[in-house]
Design brief:
With about 375 residues, this protein is an alpha/beta fold. The chain has three domains: about 50 residues, no CATH class; about 140 residues, Rossmann fold (3-Layer(aba) Sandwich), CATH 3.40.50; about 130 residues, Rossmann fold (3-Layer(aba) Sandwich), CATH 3.40.50.2300. Helices cover about 40% and strands about 15% of the residues. It is built from twelve helices and 14 strands. It has a six-stranded parallel sheet with strand order 2-1-3-4-7-13. Helix 9 crosses helix 10. It is globular.
């Protein structure tokens, strides 16, 4: 029968990657040593101490990147207190921590007031920001502030919104470096296609929108309306307001006064989260859905009150701009950020899965956690584009 190897000895051999040599054989046999176990423990301790010492020496460096200035990035937002952007703020903070940078500054407007946003851009420029990410909700108002920042040598990205659309054509209106966010007009077209599948016969429908004309959501409405044109639909565009406190009563009032609707949909997260419950309160059981995973939207899907939402990944809209601005600065401006579509995923009762798990990615908790992927096949629609 073979001699049993002490677990501590076995651990030392594995961790120190010992090959078949004198030291390994001594540990296995205890030859020439007062205790193989004691020796193995000492070796593991020395190894750990050395590793920790090296880690401490390089603590100020992010990964294998060189030490850099503590670049301060700024995010300019249109609804700074809206819970949709909680994951965005976690994403920018996580990327900054990963790169050993200070958490980006967060500001702008709580009510989609463009003048407040442009003032915040000017503040960032005056403070000599090392990079600015801005939600460009208007194609005209941000042209000059962004140009001024770029002229001052400050890289600017757009996120979540990138100007507007006219007849399906983008009107960006600024010389920002790149856009990180959903392809908004296309997401509206996909909403329209979904509505067609739910209501093939057409009819009166309402599409709720927080702030008509705003570059982050108007393209969705326009895309949906273009898809449904000539298909037998009468579409009512219903404004609900920039704050969630105003959206619920606006939806309630409209539904109570229009009980002949065949369907009700929304193009912003705030309106979507209240839609299912207000339909139930109004006694209406009709197809409905919208965007994002905020508030009660996912519970409403689980409860059968909402048919679907379209997900755009707000976490990535915070995380990626930080990485892009970091690489732009690190590379001397040679790694230029690329336009990035953060996604267009339909979530319904069959695909809720891990979206329901409390996480920073969905903004429900501050805790960092690893969420295990489901086992088995990865289901994804056939890819149709490489850009």
């Amino acid at each position: 029968m073979k001699d049993k190897v002490d677990p501590v000895v076995d651990e030392a051999i594995e961790r120190l990657n010992m090959q078949d040599g004198p030291a390994r054989r001594k540990l296995l046999k205890g030859a020439g040593l007062f205790s193989a176990t004691a020796a193995a423990s000492a070796l593991i301790s020395a190894c750990t101490s050395s590793t920790n010492s090296k880690a401490g020496a390089t603590k100020a460096v992010a990964g294998n990147f060189p030490s850099t200035p503590k670049w301060q990035f700024w995010f300019v937002n249109h609804v700074t207190t809206n819970q949709f952007f909680t994951p965005t703020q976690y994403g920018m903070a996580d990327a900054a921590a990963l790169l050993n940078l200070p958490t980006p500054k967060w500001g702008g407007s709580e009510t989609s007031t463009v003048s407040q946003m442009t003032t915040y851009i000017s503040t960032a420029v005056s403070a000599k920001a090392d990079g600015i990410a801005v939600a460009v909700i208007d194609p005209n108002a941000f042209k000059q502030p962004i140009a001024s920042a770029m002229s001052a040598g400050i890289p600017v990205l757009s996120y979540n919104a990138d100007g507007s659309f006219s007849n399906g054509k983008a009107e960006i209106g600024s010389n920002r470096l790149a856009y990180v966010g959903q392809a908004l007009y296309i997401s509206g077209q996909q909403l329209g296609a979904k509505i067609l599948s739910l209501l093939p016969g057409g009819g009166d429908i309402a599409i709720f929108i927080a702030t008509p004309g705003s570059g982050n959501i108007q393209p969705r409405y326009d895309g949906a309306a273009a898809t449904l044109a000539g298909k037998g639909f009468t579409i009512h565009e219903v404004a609900t307001g920039a704050t969630t406190g105003a959206e619920q009563p606006a939806i309630k009032a409209y539904l109570l006064g229009h009980k002949n609707l065949k369907g009700a949909f929304a193009v912003d997260g705030g309106s979507t989260e209240f839609l299912g419950t207000q339909l139930k309160a109004a006694g209406l059981t009709i197809p409905n859905g919208g965007f994002d995973t905020t508030g009660s939207s996912l519970p409403n899907i689980k409860a059968g009150l909402t048919d679907f939402v379209i997900y755009q990944d707000p976490y990535l809209q915070g995380f990626l701009p930080v990485v892009y601005m970091y690489l732009y600065n690190l590379s001397g401006g040679t790694i230029v950020p690329s336009d990035t579509d953060t996604g267009l995923s339909f979530i319904d009762k069959t695909s809720l899965g891990n979206y329901q798990v409390s996480s920073r990615f969905q903004g429900q908790t501050t805790a960092q956690k690893y969420i295990k992927r489901p086992t088995g096949a990865i289901n994804n629609a056939q890819a149709t584009t490489s850009t």
